[in-house]
Specification:
This is Ribosomal RNA small subunit methyltransferase E. Its EC number is 2.1.1.193. It comes from Geobacter argillaceus. The chain has 7 helices and 11 strands. The protein is α/β, with parallel strands linked by helices. It folds into 2 domains: 67 residues, Beta Barrel (Ribosomal Protein L25, Chain P); 165 residues, Alpha/beta knot. Helix 2 runs parallel beside helix 3 and helix 2 runs parallel beside helix 7. The longest helix is centred in the middle third of the chain and has 22 residues. It is elongated. The two termini are 24 Å apart.
């Protein structure tokens, strides 16, 4: 029987004992109904994995003996970053959850010119903690050994100064000439991909021009205009299918 992979927040090192409490204890004891003696693969969220064996499991917690560290996993595709124009309501939480399941490497919301919600400074830390928790729970559910990196950018100008990416894509409903299908067919698998997606109402002409001048290629995914929470997940699934580990 194969070992279950479990993402945990505890510090992991060979020869030590990790005690899981709270939601992690509940997941192992109540959801998975694991027993004493069960062997697991424990992931630390940063890509490191260890063999573990349950020593004790009760209402106080789950005690796991940490064994050998496993060889580092090699990436199955490019590191994908989604720069998401801040959407309304709870749409970003859906994007975080499903994007994690689809293997996104990083998600960075940003305030586009047409973004309606604006977090007050005093609420940013709490919201980032909630986003981290959503990503961690989604990673645990789908068996990822890591979780995506999360950030927050003030505007598109900040996004355009972030990181070096092998391929830079801008999803834009106004693009008529460059289709995603042909672009992917003509492009060898890169090391990293960045995708900019606008909020409800899309990006302004000035934002599109700025992204193009920064090296982003505007592309269309077809005749239908997708909602902002659909567009990112759709292109993420396509990129993972063509260049990554999906399908």
């Amino acid at each position: 029987m194969s070992r279950r992979r479990i993402l945990v927040t505890a510090r992991l090192a060979p020869g030590t004992v990790a005690t899981l409490i709270g939601s992690e204890r509940h997941y192992l004891a109540t959801v998975l109904r694991l027993k004493t003696g069960t062997e697991l693969i424990l992931a630390d969220g940063a890509g490191r994995e260890f063999i573990g064996s349950i020593n004790r499991l009760d209402s106080d917690g789950v005690e796991i003996a940490i064994g050998d560290e496993l060889p580092a996993l090699q990436p199955d595709g490019p590191a994908i970053t989604i720069y998401q124009g801040m959407p309304k309501g709870e749409k970003l939480e859906l994007i975080l959850q499903k994007g994690t399941e689809l293997g996104v490497g990083s998600i960075v919301p940003f305030y586009a010119a047409r973004s309606v919600p604006r977090l007050r400074d005093e609420r940013i830390e709490g919201r980032l903690e909630r986003w981290e928790r959503i990503a961690r729970e989604a990673a645990r559910q789908c068996g990822r050994p890591d979780r995506p990196q999360l950030g927050l950018a003030r505007n598109l100008a900040d996004v355009l100064r972030m990181g070096e990416h092998s391929v830079k894509l801008l999803l834009w409903e106004g693009e008529k000439a460059v289709g995603l299908r042909q672009l992917l067919a003509d492009t060898p698998r890169p090391d990293s991909v960045a995708v900019i997606i606008g909020p409800e109402g899309g990006l302004t002409g000035e934002e599109v021009t700025a992204a193009r001048e920064a090296g982003y290629c505007s592309v269309t995914m077809g005749k239908r205009i997708l909602r902002t929470e659909t567009a990112g997940l759709a292109i993420l699934a396509i990129l993972q299918h063509v260049w990554g580990d999906l399908g």
